[in-house]
Write a structure and sequence with these properties.
The structure holds 2 protein chains of 2 kinds. Chain A is mostly helical. In chain A, about 80% of the residues lie in helices and about 0% in strands. Chain A is globular, with a radius of gyration of 23 Å. Chain B is mostly helical. Chain B is built from 14 helices and no strands. The relative contact order of chain B is 0.12. Classes of the chains: A mainly alpha, B mainly alpha. At the A-B interface, α1, α3, α4, α5 and α6 of A face α1, α4, α5, α6 and α7 of B.
Amino acid sequence: MSWSRRLLAAHTALVYLFLWVPIAVLAVFSFNAGRQTAVWRGATLDWYRRLLANDALLASVRNSLAAAALTTVIATAIGTLAALALRRADVPGKGATLALLFLPMVIPEVVLGAALLTFFGAIGLRLSLVTVVIAHVVFSVSYVALVVRARLSGLDPALEEAARDLGAGPVETFRRVTLPLIFPGIAASALLVFTLSIDDYVVTSFVAGVGATTLPLHVYSMLRVGVTPEVNAVSTLLLAGTIGLIVAAQRLLRGSSSKGDRE
Amino acid sequence: MRDRRDRSGWLLLAPTWLLLGVFFLAPLTLTLVLSFRQRGVYGGLKPVENLGGYVASGAFLSNYSRSLQEIYLGIGWRSLWMALLTTALTLVIGYPVAYVLALRTPRRWKDLLLGLVVVPFWTSFLIRTYAWMFLLRTEGLLNHLLLGAGLRDRPLEILYTELAVMIGLVYGELPFMILPLYASLEKLDRTLLEAAADLGAGRGSVFRRVTIPLTSPGIAAGIVLVFIPSLGQFVVSDLLGGARSMLLGNLIQNQLSVARNHPFGAALAFELMAAVLLLLLAYALYMKRKGEEVLL
């Protein structure tokens, strides 16, 4: 191994440490018995037990789960329909739609949050969990369209043509051929939307009304007060949850594409 | 037949246009309009009595001219500088990692190593920022270790400084740089690198004259993906920065909440958006010239 390769490998190893050590330390110290959070005093599950007794926190978890579930259903449905339309060469307004879907992904979150807050105020829509769901659908629908569209572009049109030739109508072809083939893409994007929604702080902080505090908002208020073992515990749970969702989404996308139906 | 297809295409797109038309384009338009108004005495809007006079007197630009005052301009420059620095650092740190992942990693390790970058890409920015609060505090783990090992006799005061914000930004954005770089390095035709080497190019010049130009779409995508969120950042600066590390994102948020000056906040938001859109336009033109698809 030449010195340049060794240097590259060392650099990469350091970057992986940089990416993962802070998260790992955070998780490990959520099991620390000491209140003085930087000193290890033996293992405990106390902080997790305390979370379960924290009503405000549990309420925020319920809000987050409800908002994420609703967002996922709505955004996945709308985004999938858009992806199906964009697949056709002759659909009107294709370029404009692509640009429209592109914008919410790249606009700074603080701008989106500020604009929605102003808008909800102007039309007299009271801030609540409903406004949170609307905002989350707005910023996540593009991801669905993007992922499902990529999935559709890898689909062999001959399969659908064959179904049609064998006498299946358009609806039946869609239900029995297209949908099963793109389902992994739809499921993966649903998982991603759920993650985006449950993790979002910036946009939510603008549009969540009283009583619609989500988990990230609650965590933010906790950690503005100070670093406590409870924050470590709740962060660890949130991390574990999102890691689970992401791994599942990646599995879905990769597992299905390696079956050879892409090329 | 063709006509029916067209119509069903519209039907499939209608929900998207309805959703984004009402809850995305309309709010942005409203924000733009609002940015030309003035704040009323009690926080609402000052009524415009004579539209002609309002426009002619230049009053409609008062928020924009206010944003050019030294104090706000300073915040703007600092945000720009921090975003540029974040982008440069993530590029320099991330490129070698993407290179190793794409070209030097055996097949069986690739999925795992790539996954270890993808997971932070999607996990909560908030939690990942908190992790640094936990490490960098005066009584935090880093100082505990430094003092314990006798490397320092006084704790390092890093948290609530610009250095902490910088660390948090680089940490948060690094995966957003590595992934697009990886995607373009992965597509790289290796025979071209071999050909260059066979023709007598040294390793450095192969890298400079073949690898970098061929992966420039990935570099451009990474720059866009990192620069934009860094420019509008407010969580990292709010949590890791001190009172003096206010960035544009914090200023906008502040105008909408504490200061209750929506018109000024709207003007600032639009300036931020204009900067972002200009960058995106440049990016789109660049990608078009390269013949690449623009979608990130």
